[in-house]
Amino acid sequence: MSDTTAPLAPPDPLPAPPGGRPPDPAEDLAALRVVPVRHYGRWAAASVVAVLVAQFAHGLVTNPVWEWHVFADYVLSETIVQAVLVTLQLTACATVLGFLLGAVLAFMRLSRNPLLRTVAWSYVWVFRSIPMIVQLVFWFNLGALYRELGVGIPFGPVFWSVDGNALVGTIGAALIGLSLHQAAYAAEIVRGGVLSVGHGQLEAAAALGIPRLRQIRRIVLPQAMRTILPTAGNEVIGLLKGTSVVYVMAIGELFYQVQVVYGRNGRVIPLLMVATAWYVLLTTLLSVAQFHVERRYARGAGRGRAAGRRSLRKERP
């Protein structure tokens, strides 16, 4: 019996394009029309923001309540400039004292001694829990709690004593309150920076016989500063603005003096704008300084990463 199934015929070839050459995909893509995506929601949001900004600027210029001539009279007056200097002094002293004490507390929390860890943890817990204004008022009234402060043997003779009110004045109470409050936050910042350094480096340094204090000074802190500085800079800026709380103690810082002036002449809005302008200027300067310090400490890390990449490229076959 013969097989009557006929073989399938091959398909007809595709017609050749004009010119006798196959189609080029690149030419097909070039012929496509590129249509940019239209972000209608983004345009609408930008339009709303532009209208609000224009309305705000119009109000600044046309609203007579702003009294910009009064602002110009007081922004560089001697009273305000002296108040700015007091604000800067409080900020600088509280920053130095707070971060020194905070560094001590941070290493106490990292200590293997349970008593040191417990005391440092308790300090951070207590001083982060109490509002700054409560701490300031407490230290301001320290003389009512301790009429006399002395040094001696517990339950024994006193070798030296001083009147409580004479020891802690108004400025002293403000510095104590600001510094102790700042130390609680600085301790956590420093501790986080130290923990960011690899533990293997300390083990290697200990194996080489490098003393513990030298390990901290030459190995830990230079690397930890890259982690500490961004948060520490923000804390200093927050402390600068937080010094306005000491107005409750009648200290002649910026916000207190502004209140005194507008309490006499009744020009509340322009005097508040004077304080606002100074705070914005000071925080801007601190932000610029923070940026440059961070960039300086980041140079070593950038060089280290670049050297590591170069060494990896050299090791590749």
TrEMBL record:
Compositional bias of kind Pro residues: 8-23
Compartment list: Cell membrane
Topology of the protein relative to the lipid bilayer: Multi-pass membrane protein
Domain ABC transmembrane type-1: 84-290
The keyword Transport appears for this protein: yes
Transmembrane residue ranges: 43-61, 81-108, 120-146, 166-187, 236-256, 268-289
Keywords: Amino-acid transport, Cell membrane, Membrane, Transmembrane, Transmembrane helix, Transport
Transmembrane helix found in the keyword field: yes
GO molecular function: transmembrane transporter activity
Region of interest: Disordered: 1-25
GO biological process, one term: amino acid transport
SUPFAM superfamilies: MetI-like (SSF161098)
GO CC annotation terms, alphabetical: ATP-binding cassette (ABC) transporter complex
Listed Pfam families: BPD_transp_1 (PF00528)
Family: Belongs to the binding-protein-dependent transport system permease family.
Record-given protein name: Amino acid ABC transporter permease
Organism this protein belongs to: Streptomyces solincola
